[in-house]
Design the sequence.
């Protein structure tokens, strides 16, 4: 599938911002199942300084600094992306999940590189509850593909999608307690479940193309950024699954960036110098089939 | 009996009851009671030292350290005085040489490891270092682990903590690579010890430390990226509340580089600049004393106010070199220790010369088994010092380790060596560790020939420090082996007069003046009180009460008038009482600390005098001690004038002057407002005016001019109008105008200057005879006038702050919205789950 993705983040302040520095993770990754065509990132007002770099995880990170006083900062990324459904090696998915624990088997092919994603991270701390919860899916000797799919299925059943349940700073323990959250929370929860058993799993940030309800027009700008997880299944292979929607990532999933958790790859983050006391944030995302 | 003989007798005596304890190696005395070779050369002098000598020396050390204002705080505690033991740790050349070779090799090895961890990571891929041991360490900074951030020499200055085992062999206890502290303390220790035991120092024939600072300076200048013609180096400090603030300021001033804080710097176009008023000055090298995590709110901890937003980007662009590199903290990792011997063979092709203390990494099953099997015999530590392990108990510790074994190591507990240490009047053996420093100088790593020894108490906490004397093999050898120290590259002399520094300077002036005013007021009031006590029927009671209203106006009331002495003590001793002399003195010290690198070391003698006066007052309950101590504090404050008299006439000096002048004017107006606007009868008024003259240091002038004839008009003329009385309002305003006019941001018509002109014009148009005019019980014109002047002075100081100290708003972080990604939701059509 081919998509034209546009993602606009607008910050509005009640006083002048004299200096604003930011980092954006908005350029989709080039992957075996994803080709990135034309891409543009526009910051307004025009930054005095912009630079693109490849970060530790291979994502494109864009640094910008706006020093012209402003009350509105607008960051817009547009990308043409062609995605196909990733293909997996059935034999790899059929191996027991225990084989893919980088700390327990540091000598395994790809284990050193996967280690970073098996360790706790800032937003994915270890908790006995999530470990226990995951144990019912991660049964001894179970094939990794099946075990992970089952875990994702249970999370989808047991947890409610609720925009009011959590905030950006919610911890996994709070999500588990609330039994509800948004896609980012579902992803963090799944990561905690998997890492708690020694599996390596990364947080994937991107978009999901949504089809309009039958008989209705597609609403432009009504989409949102999305997050899911990818589990290491040996070698260089990672199985991407979406706990929010209980499915494997397919050709509707546009991958932008990945890291240990949200904190590694927020779409936009930054530091401002201002006397302003309030700021508002608006995000508009559109994933249009081409 | 001399100290050393007695000590030798004690430590060689077989002790009873502690057979289980391994014998410690003694740094001075051999098991047979004779002196170690290092002490032989000094034996004659050293053995002659009596307990009395040592106590004298110890007293002198304390005084020197107070005069130099040397402080240190244990993590999480307020800074207290630095402690230095009079008996140095002495190491002879034969023993030092292998240590030196081992330290240089270790730095080379650590640098190679660091380069790999932030580059190819081949050591992780091959398993030479377990990935979990590095990636779970919070010192691993991913934002500089990029191809763009390659730093060929990420390790410039490292420190190594060593201890000796029972056999007397040195073992590395820990590596300090994040932002090693202690060079300043080491240098200060040497300065003090060389002064208090000069005979011993002369006999020793040891390496002086100065050339090492020159080498460090040159190494920092040369580490500037891109070979700029005029490299600028700054020392980045987390601020005066840092536990090693003294060390940072010492190093900065010894090197001649400005001591800055994060808010003094900013990033533009991917480069770092110093915010000098009116312009930005490019910074090429940052000697970093802020932990990496706090160095950039944009890409590291967002809640940090200590860093510079964009610093990481500047590092990646190669426009600035941070020393040590932002990622260097990952080497402060005990889990690396078991792997160093093999890594040394692999990376340097030679055996590791300096062994580390035996360490087992729990991420390795065999290591975990060993540690859990010996929980009573090993020290369990986390890789990066995070997580509280103290007081967990055996089972608690086992559970914590098992939950994430790769986060922990177990380390052999060394029976550290001991050395004679003075405590409570006698010399006793106490355990010690040695911190050494290693610098990348030219193409090789060079250890400092010397170091800093830490004396530990029974609980293993720091109790004091020792100077470290490394003896020369041959007196003709150059100090530090650095005869070839590169001549210091000429760098632009730096005046880091950033807004924060100007503000601190302004407050140095204001607090000094405020302290002086309060001290004089206390002295005047105390004299009145004394007088009144001896003549209870005089009018003194009323006069005293009136003078005390001036105190109340400035510092409120704490104690009833019946407890006047307690009130005075509180004014002199309670730093938390706003408006008190003690409060002003604490503020003065704090402001001074913030600009320590810009002030003469003599500044700290002022506090030495004040501290001793305060201690004397605390120890004596006599009333006369109030006046005695206040007088000595005043002596200290007055000597500050002598210190600032020798300062270069730069904007910093002018800010001190402006602060002084404006504060003096303010204090004077408060004093007059409290004491002279209401009439109390001729006798009382005369007594009050005399006290006012005393408190404003104009009594002598007044007596000479008016021959003891005290009347309001004369007093007010002298204190408000007289252009030649440095205590008068007119004089203070003229002074302030001169100082403000000399500031770079002044234009002649900037707001502070306009306000000041207005105020001076108003004063010129005022006649004393109008001010003293009587209306009812008081002098309404005077009251109105003083209130107006005080209001304008307050506006003026605000305007000064706005023009000269404004540094812009503090940084705040922003993020993205909560991801509200599309969800089919439970109500939607079931999504097909592909079969695995």
Sequence:
């Amino acid at each position: 599938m081919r998509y034209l993705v546009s993602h606009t983040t607008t910050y509005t302040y009640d006083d002048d911002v004299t200096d604003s520095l930011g980092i954006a993770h908005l350029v989709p990754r080039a992957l075996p199942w994803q080709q990135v065509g034309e891409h543009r990132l526009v910051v307004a007002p025009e930054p005095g300084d912009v630079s693109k770099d490849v970060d530790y995880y291979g994502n494109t990170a864009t640094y910008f600094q706006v020093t012209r006083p402003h009350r509105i900062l607008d960051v817009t990324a547009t990308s043409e992306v062609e995605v196909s459904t990733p293909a997996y090696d059935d034999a790899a998915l059929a191996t027991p999940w225990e084989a893919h624990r980088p700390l327990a088997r540091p000598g395994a092919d790809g284990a050193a590189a996967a280690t970073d994603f098996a360790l706790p991270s800032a937003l994915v701390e270890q908790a006995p509850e999530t470990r226990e919860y995951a144990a019912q899916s991660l049964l001894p000797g179970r094939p990794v593909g099946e075990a992970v799919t089952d875990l994702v299925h249970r999370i989808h059943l047991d947890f409610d999608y609720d925009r009011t349940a959590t905030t950006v700073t919610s911890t996994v323990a709070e999500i588990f307690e609330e039994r509800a959250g948004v896609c980012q929370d579902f992803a963090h929860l799944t990561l905690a479940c998997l890492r708690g058993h020694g599996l390596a799993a990364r947080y994937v940030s991107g978009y999901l193309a949504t089809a309009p309800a039958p008989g209705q027009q597609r609403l432009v700008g009504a989409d949102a950024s999305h997050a899911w997880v990818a589990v290491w299944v040996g070698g260089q292979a990672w199985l991407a699954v979406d706990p929010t929607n209980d499915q494997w990532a397919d050709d509707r999933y546009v991958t932008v960036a990945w890291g240990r958790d949200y904190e590694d790859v927020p779409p936009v983050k930054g530091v401002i110098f201002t006397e302003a006391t309030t700021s508002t944030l608006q995000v508009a995302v559109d994933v249009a089939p081409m | 009996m001399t100290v050393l003989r007695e000590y030798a007798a004690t430590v060689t005596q077989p002790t009873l009851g502690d057979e289980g304890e391994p014998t410690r190696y003694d740094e001075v005395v051999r098991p047979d009671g004779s002196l170690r070779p290092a002490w032989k050369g000094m034996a004659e002098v050293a053995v002659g030292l009596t307990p009395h000598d040592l106590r004298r020396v110890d007293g002198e050390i304390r005084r020197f350290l107070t005069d130099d204002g040397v402080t240190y705080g244990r993590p999480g505690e307020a800074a207290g005085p630095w402690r230095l033991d009079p008996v140095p740790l002495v190491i002879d050349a034969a023993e030092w040489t292998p240590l030196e070779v081992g330290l240089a090799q270790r730095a080379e090895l650590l640098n190679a490891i660091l380069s790999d961890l932030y580059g190819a990571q081949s050591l992780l891929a091959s398993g030479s270092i377990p990935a979990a041991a590095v990636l779970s360490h919070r010192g691993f900074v991913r934002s500089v682990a990029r191809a763009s951030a390659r730093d060929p020499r990420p390790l410039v200055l490292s420190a190594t903590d060593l201890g000796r085992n029972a056999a007397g062999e040195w073992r590395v206890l820990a590596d300090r690579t994040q932002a090693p502290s202690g060079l300043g303390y080491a240098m200060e220790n040497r300065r003090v010890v060389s002064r208090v035991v000069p005979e011993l120092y002369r006999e020793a024939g040891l390496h002086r430390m100065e050339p090492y600072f020159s080498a460090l300076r040159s190494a920092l200048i040369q580490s500037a990226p891109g070979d700029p013609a005029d490299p600028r180096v700054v020392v980045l400090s987390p601020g005066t509340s840092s536990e090693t603030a003294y060390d940072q300021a010492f190093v900065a001033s010894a090197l001649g580089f400005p001591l800055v804080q994060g808010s003094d710097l900013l990033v533009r176009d991917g480069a770092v600049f110093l915010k000098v008023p009116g312009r930005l000055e490019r910074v090429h090298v940052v000697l970093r004393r802020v932990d990496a995590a706090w160095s950039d709110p944009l890409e590291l901890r967002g809640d940090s106010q200590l860093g510079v937003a964009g610093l990481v980007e500047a590092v990646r662009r190669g426009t600035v070199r941070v020393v040590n590199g932002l990622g260097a903290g990952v080497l402060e990792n005990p889990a690396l220790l078991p792997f160093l011997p093999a890594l040394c063979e692999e990376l340097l092709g030679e055996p590791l010369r300096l062994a580390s203390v035996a360490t087992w990494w729990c991420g390795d099953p065999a290591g975990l088994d060993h540690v859990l099997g010996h929980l009573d015999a090993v020290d369990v530590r986390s890789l990066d010092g995070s997580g509280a392990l103290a007081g967990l108990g055996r089972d608690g510790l086992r559970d914590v380790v098992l939950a994430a074994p790769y986060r922990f190591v177990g380390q052999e507990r060394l029976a550290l060596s001991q050395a004679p240490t003075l405590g409570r009047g006698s010399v006793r053996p106490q355990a010690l560790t040695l911190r050494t420093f290693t610098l990348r100088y030219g193409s090789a790593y060079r250890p400092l020939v010397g170091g800093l020894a830490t004396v530990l108490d029974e609980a293993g906490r720091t109790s004091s420090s020792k100077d470290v004397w490394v003896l020369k093999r041959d007196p003709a050898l150059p100090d530090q082996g650095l005869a070839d120290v590169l001549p210091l590259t000429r760098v632009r002399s730096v005046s880091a007069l950033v807004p924060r520094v100007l503000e601190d300077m302004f407050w140095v002036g204001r607090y000094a003046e405020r302290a002086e005013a309060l001290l004089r007021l206390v002295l005047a009031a105390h004299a009145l009180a004394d007088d009144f006590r001896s003549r209870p029927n005089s009018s003194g009671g009323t006069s005293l009460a009136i003078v005390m209203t001036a105190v109340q106006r400035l510092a409120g009331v704490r104690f009833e008038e019946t407890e006047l002495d307690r009130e005075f003590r509180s004014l002199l001793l309670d730093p938390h009482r706003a408006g008190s002399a003690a409060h002003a003195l604490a503020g003065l010290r704090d402001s001074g600390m913030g600009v320590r690198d810009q002030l003469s070391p003599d500044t700290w003698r002022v506090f030495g005098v004040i501290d001793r006066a305060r201690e004397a007052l605390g120890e004596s309950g006599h009333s006369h001690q109030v006046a005695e101590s206040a007088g000595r504090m005043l002596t200290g404050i007055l000597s500050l004038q002598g210190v600032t008299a020798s300062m270069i006439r730069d904007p910093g000096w002018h800010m001190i002057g402006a602060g002084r002048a404006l504060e003096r004017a303010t204090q004077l107006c408060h004093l007059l407002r409290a004491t002279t606007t209401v009439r109390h009868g001729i006798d009382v008024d005369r007594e009050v005016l005399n006290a006012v003259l005393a408190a404003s240091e104009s009594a002598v002038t007044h007596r000479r001019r008016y021959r003891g004839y005290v009347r309001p008009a004369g007093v007010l003329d002298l204190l408000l109008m007289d252009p030649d009385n440095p205590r008068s309002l007119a004089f203070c305003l003229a002074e302030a105008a001169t100082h403000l006019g000399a500031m770079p941001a002044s234009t002649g018509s900037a707001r502070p200057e306009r306000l000041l002109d207005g105020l001076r014009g108003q004063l010129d148009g005022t006649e004393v005879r109008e001010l003293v005019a009587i209306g009812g019980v008081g002098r309404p014109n005077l009251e109105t006038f003083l209130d107006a002047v005080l209001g304008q002075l307050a506006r003026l100081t605000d305007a000064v702050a706005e023009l000269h100290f404004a540094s812009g708003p503090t940084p705040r972080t922003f993020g993205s919205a909560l991801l509200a990604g599309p969800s089919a939701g439970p109500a939607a059509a079931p999504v097909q789950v592909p079969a695995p």
Remarks:
- The first helix of chain B runs from residue 3 to 12.
